[in-house]
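The passage that follows is intended for readers who have already worked through the single-chain material. We present the inputs for a multi-component assembly, then the predicted structure in tokenized form, and finally a short commentary. You are encouraged to pause after the input and sketch how you expect the pieces to fit together before reading on.
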Amino acid sequence: MTYSIVARCPRTGQLGIGIASYSMAIGLYCDGAVRANTGATLTQGFPNPRNNYLAINLLALGRTAGQALTELIGNDRHSEYRQIALVDRDNNAVAHSGANLRKWAGHRIGNACVAFGDGLAGQQVVDAMAEAFEAAAPAGLDEQLLAALEAGRDAGGIAGAKGRLTERSAAMIVWGNRTHNEVDLRVDLHDRAINELRRIYVDYKPSIAYYEERARNPRNAIPAMEFADMLKNQRQKETA
Amino acid sequence: MTYSIIARCPRTGRFGVGSTTFSMACGRRNESVRPNVGVSKSQAFYLRYVDPLALNMLAQGYTPQHIVRTLEADDPDFDYRQFGIIDRENNVVAHTGPGCGKWAGHTVGPYYAAYGNGLAGPQTVAGIVSGFLKHPDAPLEDRLLQALEGGRDAGGQASKGVPRPERSAWIRVVDQLDHPEVDVRVDLHDKTVAELRRVLEEFKRYRDYYKARCAHPSEAIPEEEFAAKLDAKAA
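Having made your guess, compare it with the prediction:
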């Protein structure tokens, strides 16, 4: 009922996740999933809400992604119901798809990334995600994450007992080397959550630099309303 | 151009934040709430590193009052910052610098702070507080949402006398565990506070199911079956 990508950008060292689900507010379960200079992880399927924190703490201790995954499985009597992925700062990417997940469930490990999901239309969903992720590499990690989600959706996405189920929520998170995220966008309840995430991202992306600059240099800042109008005008010109 | 409420539930000790603003995706500021430590939510011309720093200092044992002095000493643009901090002992502080624009201000209560900038006037903050206090026995997430609704209904945001829309909104409540109890967001919407109400109400219908599915996966029914049952019950 959920598909995700967990990744590190080997070029920039950014870490991130992209996720879409039939469940609502899936971003809530991504809390603690990414930490700068440490790693990125997700547990889904029948998630274990402690796992993100434990996984990141293990990576922060210095364990590799593979060692941390072994620990997570050993720590959880329901590990056959969990689907877990980790990427560490050395680009090690690992995953576990428990035997009791809803079918189809599985993962595909790529270059410093894992595409994985459960309750899906089939293997083609995670394959399409991994391929779109790698193809979008020149565009940067946030674009890659979104491209992977869109490819997963277009390859059939989520399948319930009576056929396709819509993505009702989605989220994307990217961290650089700061003590806070660079991008953290959510759609919690929507008929087309991935389309909505793309809409929000397109509007949000140009404002990142604006908000950073405004904080550093408040005396000369353009008001937020003015900045939003500038963006709108610029977009109208581009589409005209 | 933002208004927020931070609080520690006097009954349960849970921490929470509710926030809404013209800017997009205000809920990305999830570094502002830390279980068993406190809340530090900065806004106006905020520096992202301030909230993690303040929470690290709270975790070390500093009081919110001391942390404010530390932040001020280290920031030549302190006059442009607005923030509130609350700790585990209900120590609450708020700061609204004179550079935060008109109208900006805050109210500090015994276990909460309400504050905003780019508002219609002091009535917005008064509306947040009266919404928050309306049902003191309600769960914290409901009180936070009523606070945001109260702020909106009292006039919300305005710039040069012209009302300005809220485009994103967020509620987060943490208990003793690492992961949040409630974290619902609307990142870009024309009627964002009303949409947040819709999302929170829907989340409350699913919350127990999601918890049980994590803890007892072998007994969980498929989510689409659960959703169909919910719909049948509502019909």
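Commentary: Chain B has one domain: 2-192. The longest helix of chain B spans residues 192-215. How closely did your sketch match?
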